[in-house]
Protein backbone atom coordinates (compact mmCIF):
# COMPACT_ATOMS: atom_id res chain seq x y z
CA UNK A 1 0.00 0.00 0.00
CA UNK A 2 1.56 3.33 -1.02
CA UNK A 3 0.78 6.73 0.42
CA UNK A 4 -1.05 7.60 -2.78
CA UNK A 5 -3.49 4.79 -2.16
CA UNK A 6 -4.41 5.92 1.35
CA UNK A 7 -7.20 8.35 2.13
CA UNK A 8 -6.31 8.65 5.82
CA UNK A 9 -3.07 8.57 7.74
CA UNK A 10 -1.84 5.13 8.74
CA UNK A 11 -0.04 4.66 12.05
CA UNK A 12 1.89 1.56 13.11
CA UNK A 13 1.89 0.98 16.87
CA UNK A 14 4.69 -1.26 18.15
CA UNK A 15 4.38 -2.50 21.74
CA UNK A 16 4.53 -5.84 23.54
CA UNK A 17 1.81 -4.73 25.98
CA UNK A 18 -1.71 -5.77 24.95
CA UNK A 19 -3.15 -3.17 27.31
CA UNK A 20 -1.18 -0.34 25.71
CA UNK A 21 -2.05 -1.54 22.21
CA UNK A 22 -5.74 -1.65 23.07
CA UNK A 23 -5.76 1.84 24.60
CA UNK A 24 -3.82 3.43 21.74
CA UNK A 25 -5.77 1.63 19.03
CA UNK A 26 -9.03 2.97 20.45
CA UNK A 27 -7.73 6.54 20.80
CA UNK A 28 -6.17 6.62 17.33
CA UNK A 29 -9.19 5.02 15.70
CA UNK A 30 -11.45 7.61 17.34
CA UNK A 31 -9.20 10.31 15.85
CA UNK A 32 -9.83 8.94 12.35
CA UNK A 33 -6.51 7.18 11.85
CA UNK A 34 -5.97 3.71 10.41
CA UNK A 35 -4.12 1.63 12.98
CA UNK A 36 -1.69 -1.24 12.40
CA UNK A 37 -0.19 -3.12 15.36
CA UNK A 38 2.99 -5.11 15.94
CA UNK A 39 3.97 -6.99 19.09
CA UNK A 40 7.75 -6.98 18.54
CA UNK A 41 10.54 -5.48 16.49
CA UNK A 42 10.73 -8.15 13.78
CA UNK A 43 7.00 -7.98 13.18
CA UNK A 44 7.22 -4.19 13.03
CA UNK A 45 9.97 -4.33 10.38
CA UNK A 46 7.93 -6.67 8.19
CA UNK A 47 4.72 -4.66 8.49
CA UNK A 48 6.47 -1.34 7.86
CA UNK A 49 8.11 -2.64 4.67
CA UNK A 50 4.85 -4.03 3.30
CA UNK A 51 2.36 -1.39 4.42
CA UNK A 52 4.43 1.86 4.44
CA UNK A 53 2.68 3.59 7.38
CA UNK A 54 2.78 7.37 7.59
CA UNK A 55 4.09 7.37 11.17
CA UNK A 56 5.24 4.82 13.76
CA UNK A 57 4.75 4.77 17.54
CA UNK A 58 7.55 2.64 18.97
CA UNK A 59 7.83 1.17 22.47
CA UNK A 60 11.44 1.63 23.57
CA UNK A 61 11.77 -1.45 25.78
CA UNK A 62 10.72 -4.74 24.18
CA UNK A 63 12.14 -8.28 24.50
CA UNK A 64 14.43 -9.80 21.83
CA UNK A 65 14.77 -6.61 19.78
CA UNK A 66 14.19 -3.34 21.59
CA UNK A 67 12.71 -0.24 19.99
CA UNK A 68 16.09 1.44 19.54
CA UNK A 69 17.46 -1.41 17.41
CA UNK A 70 14.18 -1.70 15.49
CA UNK A 71 14.35 2.01 14.68
CA UNK A 72 17.98 1.77 13.56
CA UNK A 73 17.12 -1.06 11.18
CA UNK A 74 14.17 0.87 9.75
CA UNK A 75 16.43 3.84 9.06
CA UNK A 76 18.73 1.55 7.05
CA UNK A 77 15.92 0.45 4.72
CA UNK A 78 15.06 2.64 1.73
CA UNK A 79 11.34 1.87 2.09
CA UNK A 80 11.12 2.85 5.76
CA UNK A 81 13.95 5.29 6.48
CA UNK A 82 11.83 8.42 5.97
CA UNK A 83 8.92 7.35 8.18
CA UNK A 84 8.82 9.49 11.37
CA UNK A 85 9.14 7.38 14.55
CA UNK A 86 7.95 8.54 17.97
CA UNK A 87 9.28 6.59 20.94
CA UNK A 88 6.99 5.64 23.80
CA UNK A 89 8.82 4.97 27.02
CA UNK A 90 8.41 4.82 30.76
CA UNK A 91 12.03 5.90 30.99
CA UNK A 92 12.38 9.64 31.33
CA UNK A 93 16.13 9.76 31.99
CA UNK A 94 18.29 11.67 29.53
CA UNK A 95 20.31 8.63 28.45
CA UNK A 96 17.32 6.77 27.00
CA UNK A 97 15.88 9.90 25.40
CA UNK A 98 19.21 10.50 23.65
CA UNK A 99 19.36 6.83 22.59
CA UNK A 100 15.97 7.17 20.92
CA UNK A 101 16.90 10.32 19.05
CA UNK A 102 20.29 8.94 17.98
CA UNK A 103 18.58 5.80 16.68
CA UNK A 104 16.55 7.99 14.32
CA UNK A 105 13.46 8.86 16.31
CA UNK A 106 11.92 12.29 15.81
CA UNK A 107 10.29 12.58 19.24
CA UNK A 108 9.43 10.70 22.43
CA UNK A 109 6.51 10.59 24.82
CA UNK A 110 6.54 9.13 28.31
CA UNK A 111 4.10 6.59 29.72
CA UNK A 112 1.39 6.72 30.91
CA UNK A 113 0.45 8.25 27.58
CA UNK A 114 -1.89 11.21 27.29
CA UNK A 115 -3.79 10.60 24.00
CA UNK A 116 -4.38 14.32 23.41
CA UNK A 117 -0.70 15.12 23.74
CA UNK A 118 0.26 12.15 21.57
CA UNK A 119 -2.12 13.18 18.77
CA UNK A 120 -0.81 16.76 18.86
CA UNK A 121 2.77 15.55 18.49
CA UNK A 122 1.79 13.15 15.71
CA UNK A 123 0.10 15.92 13.71
CA UNK A 124 3.27 18.02 13.84
CA UNK A 125 5.49 15.18 12.60
CA UNK A 126 3.00 14.07 9.95
CA UNK A 127 2.92 17.64 8.62
CA UNK A 128 6.73 17.86 8.64
CA UNK A 129 7.00 14.52 6.82
CA UNK A 130 4.58 15.68 4.12
CA UNK A 131 6.50 18.92 3.56
CA UNK A 132 9.77 17.01 3.32
CA UNK A 133 8.23 14.56 0.85
CA UNK A 134 6.86 17.42 -1.27
CA UNK A 135 10.23 19.17 -1.33
CA UNK A 136 12.01 15.99 -2.36
CA UNK A 137 9.44 15.30 -5.07
CA UNK A 138 9.98 18.84 -6.38
CA UNK A 139 13.74 18.30 -6.49
CA UNK A 140 13.25 14.98 -8.28
CA UNK A 141 11.07 16.70 -10.89
CA UNK A 142 13.50 19.60 -11.28
CA UNK A 143 16.35 17.22 -12.03
CA UNK A 144 18.64 18.51 -9.29
CA UNK A 145 21.64 16.44 -8.20
CA UNK A 146 20.83 16.72 -4.50
CA UNK A 147 21.45 14.27 -1.65
CA UNK A 148 21.56 14.32 2.14
CA UNK A 149 23.62 12.48 4.74
CA UNK A 150 23.72 12.28 8.50
CA UNK A 151 26.70 13.64 10.46
CA UNK A 152 28.47 10.30 9.99
CA UNK A 153 28.36 10.75 6.22
CA UNK A 154 25.79 8.01 5.69
CA UNK A 155 23.46 8.77 2.82
CA UNK A 156 19.86 9.43 3.89
CA UNK A 157 18.24 10.44 0.61
CA UNK A 158 19.09 11.40 -2.94
CA UNK A 159 17.35 12.36 -6.18
CA UNK A 160 17.33 9.88 -9.08
CA UNK A 161 19.94 12.05 -10.82
CA UNK A 162 22.35 11.53 -7.91
CA UNK A 163 22.02 7.77 -8.04
CA UNK A 164 22.56 7.88 -11.81
CA UNK A 165 25.79 9.85 -11.28
CA UNK A 166 27.02 7.42 -8.62
CA UNK A 167 26.17 4.52 -10.92
CA UNK A 168 28.12 6.10 -13.77
CA UNK A 169 31.18 6.05 -11.52
CA UNK A 170 30.49 2.49 -10.29
CA UNK A 171 29.92 3.96 -6.82
CA UNK A 172 27.68 1.25 -5.41
CA UNK A 173 26.30 0.89 -1.87
CA UNK A 174 29.51 -0.67 -0.55
CA UNK A 175 31.57 2.29 -1.79
CA UNK A 176 29.08 4.81 -0.40
CA UNK A 177 29.26 3.20 3.05
CA UNK A 178 32.95 2.30 3.25
CA UNK A 179 34.60 5.14 1.32
CA UNK A 180 32.31 8.15 0.91
CA UNK A 181 30.75 8.06 4.38
CA UNK A 182 34.11 8.26 6.28
CA UNK A 183 35.30 11.06 3.97
CA UNK A 184 32.15 13.11 4.56
CA UNK A 185 32.16 12.34 8.30
CA UNK A 186 35.69 13.72 8.61
CA UNK A 187 34.81 16.74 6.46
CA UNK A 188 31.64 17.54 8.42
CA UNK A 189 33.55 17.22 11.70
CA UNK A 190 35.54 20.30 10.62
CA UNK A 191 32.32 22.30 10.00
CA UNK A 192 32.77 23.23 6.31
CA UNK A 193 31.34 26.54 5.14
CA UNK A 194 28.35 26.53 2.82
CA UNK A 195 29.57 26.37 -0.78
CA UNK A 196 32.77 24.45 -0.04
CA UNK A 197 33.51 21.50 -2.35
CA UNK A 198 35.04 18.07 -1.85
CA UNK A 199 36.33 15.72 -4.54
CA UNK A 200 35.14 12.12 -4.28
CA UNK A 201 37.28 9.52 -6.04
CA UNK A 202 34.65 7.06 -7.23
CA UNK A 203 35.93 3.74 -8.62
CA UNK A 204 36.16 4.84 -12.27
CA UNK A 205 35.72 8.63 -12.23
CA UNK A 206 36.03 11.71 -10.06
CA UNK A 207 32.87 13.24 -8.59
CA UNK A 208 32.55 16.41 -6.58
CA UNK A 209 30.08 17.38 -3.89
CA UNK A 210 29.22 20.90 -2.81
CA UNK A 211 28.09 21.48 0.79
CA UNK A 212 24.76 23.33 0.94
CA UNK A 213 24.34 23.35 4.72
CA UNK A 214 22.53 21.55 7.55
CA UNK A 215 18.82 21.35 6.76
CA UNK A 216 17.64 19.49 9.84
CA UNK A 217 19.17 18.16 13.01
CA UNK A 218 21.80 15.66 11.87
CA UNK A 219 20.89 16.01 8.17
CA UNK A 220 23.31 17.70 5.77
CA UNK A 221 22.54 18.77 2.20
CA UNK A 222 24.92 18.32 -0.75
CA UNK A 223 24.92 18.83 -4.50
CA UNK A 224 26.78 16.29 -6.64
CA UNK A 225 28.74 17.03 -9.82
CA UNK A 226 30.66 15.08 -12.42
CA UNK A 227 34.18 16.54 -12.42
CA UNK A 228 34.90 14.77 -15.68
CA UNK A 229 31.58 15.78 -17.15
CA UNK A 230 30.72 17.24 -20.54
CA UNK A 231 32.04 20.67 -21.60
CA UNK A 232 29.82 23.69 -20.96
CA UNK A 233 29.04 24.02 -24.65
CA UNK A 234 27.85 20.42 -24.83
CA UNK A 235 25.58 21.07 -21.85
CA UNK A 236 23.98 23.99 -23.71
CA UNK A 237 23.83 22.00 -26.93
CA UNK A 238 21.90 19.19 -25.30
CA UNK A 239 19.58 21.47 -23.32
CA UNK A 240 18.48 23.60 -26.28
CA UNK A 241 19.05 21.26 -29.23
CA UNK A 242 21.75 23.47 -30.71
CA UNK A 243 24.50 22.75 -33.22
CA UNK A 244 28.11 22.75 -32.02
CA UNK A 245 28.73 26.26 -33.32
CA UNK A 246 25.45 27.62 -31.95
CA UNK A 247 26.30 26.24 -28.51
CA UNK A 248 29.76 27.84 -28.61
CA UNK A 249 28.28 31.21 -29.55
CA UNK A 250 25.70 30.96 -26.74
CA UNK A 251 28.40 30.04 -24.24
CA UNK A 252 30.44 33.14 -25.04
CA UNK A 253 27.32 35.30 -24.82
CA UNK A 254 26.77 33.88 -21.32
CA UNK A 255 30.32 34.98 -20.51
CA UNK A 256 29.54 38.56 -21.57
CA UNK A 257 31.36 38.65 -24.91
CA UNK A 258 30.24 40.92 -27.76
CA UNK A 259 29.55 39.65 -31.25
CA UNK A 260 32.89 41.07 -32.42
CA UNK A 261 34.69 39.29 -29.55
CA UNK A 262 32.96 36.01 -30.39
CA UNK A 263 33.83 36.36 -34.08
CA UNK A 264 37.52 36.70 -33.18
CA UNK A 265 37.49 33.84 -30.66
CA UNK A 266 35.71 31.41 -32.98
CA UNK A 267 37.44 32.72 -36.11
CA UNK A 268 34.29 33.59 -38.01
CA UNK A 269 32.73 36.77 -39.32
CA UNK A 270 30.38 38.91 -37.16
CA UNK A 271 27.71 38.25 -39.77
CA UNK A 272 28.04 34.50 -39.20
CA UNK A 273 27.77 35.07 -35.45
CA UNK A 274 24.50 36.94 -36.05
CA UNK A 275 23.15 34.08 -38.16
CA UNK A 276 23.97 31.59 -35.43
CA UNK A 277 22.29 33.84 -32.87
CA UNK A 278 19.11 33.99 -34.93
CA UNK A 279 18.88 30.19 -34.73
CA UNK A 280 19.79 30.18 -31.04
CA UNK A 281 17.00 32.66 -30.19
CA UNK A 282 14.50 30.63 -32.21
CA UNK A 283 15.42 27.31 -30.56
CA UNK A 284 15.48 28.79 -27.07
CA UNK A 285 12.21 30.67 -27.54
CA UNK A 286 13.70 34.06 -26.63
CA UNK A 287 13.77 37.39 -28.42
CA UNK A 288 17.22 38.82 -27.75
CA UNK A 289 20.75 38.12 -26.54
CA UNK A 290 20.02 39.38 -23.02
CA UNK A 291 17.27 36.82 -22.56
CA UNK A 292 19.40 34.07 -24.13
CA UNK A 293 22.32 34.91 -21.86
CA UNK A 294 20.06 34.90 -18.80
CA UNK A 295 18.64 31.45 -19.60
CA UNK A 296 22.11 30.04 -20.37
CA UNK A 297 23.60 31.48 -17.19
CA UNK A 298 20.79 29.97 -15.13
CA UNK A 299 21.39 26.53 -16.64
CA UNK A 300 25.15 26.72 -16.14
CA UNK A 301 24.73 27.93 -12.56
CA UNK A 302 22.38 25.07 -11.73
CA UNK A 303 25.12 22.72 -12.85
CA UNK A 304 27.75 24.65 -10.89
CA UNK A 305 29.54 25.69 -14.08
CA UNK A 306 29.68 29.37 -13.10
CA UNK A 307 31.15 30.62 -9.83
Helix-strand layout with pairing:
Blueprint: E1 10-14, H1 18-30, E2 34-38, H2 41-51, E3 55-59, H3 67-75, E4 85-89, H4 94-103, E5 107-110, H5 115-142, E6 146-149, E7 155-158, H6 160-168, H7 173-189, E8 197-201, E9 206-216, E10 219-226, H8 232-240, H9 244-254, H10 259-265, H11 270-284, H12 289-302
Parallel strand pairs: 1-2, 1-3, 3-4, 4-5
Antiparallel strand pairs: 6-7, 6-10, 8-9, 9-10
What does this structure look like?
The protein is of the alpha/beta class and 307 residues long. The longest helix has 28 residues. The protein folds into three domains: 134 residues, Rossmann fold, CATH 3.40.50.2300; 83 residues, Beta-Lactamase (2-Layer Sandwich); 71 residues, Winged helix-like DNA-binding domain superfamily/Winged helix DNA-binding domain (Arc Repressor Mutant, subunit A, Orthogonal Bundle). Helix content is 50%, strand content 18%. Helix 2 runs parallel beside helix 3, helix 8 packs across helix 9 and helix 9 packs across helix 11.
Which radius of gyration do the C-alpha atoms yield?
Answer: 26 Å
Low-confidence stretches: 1-6
Shape: elongated
- Quote the CATH topology of the largest domain: Rossmann fold
| Number of helical elements | 12
User: Between the first and last Cα atoms, what is the distance in angstroms?
Assistant: 45 Å
Strand content: 15-25%
Give the oligomeric state. Answer: single chain
Range of helix content = 40-55%
Name the structural class. alpha/beta
Spell the H/E element sequence.
EHEHEHEHEHEEHHEEEHHHHH
The CATH architecture of the largest domain comes to 3-Layer(aba) Sandwich
The count of β-strands is 10
Number of domains: 3
Mean pLDDT: 85
Biggest β-sheet: count, sense, barrel?
Answer: 5 strands, parallel
Strand order of the largest sheet: 2-1-3-4-5
Amino acid sequence: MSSADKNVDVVLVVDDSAETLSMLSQALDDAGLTVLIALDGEQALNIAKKMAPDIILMDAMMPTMDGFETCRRMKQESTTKNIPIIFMTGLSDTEHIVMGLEAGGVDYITKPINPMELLARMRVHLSNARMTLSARAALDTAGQNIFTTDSDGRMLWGTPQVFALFESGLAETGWLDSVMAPMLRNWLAHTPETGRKLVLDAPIKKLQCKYLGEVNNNEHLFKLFDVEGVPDSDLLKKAFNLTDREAEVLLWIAHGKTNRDIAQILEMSPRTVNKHLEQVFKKMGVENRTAAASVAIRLLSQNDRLS
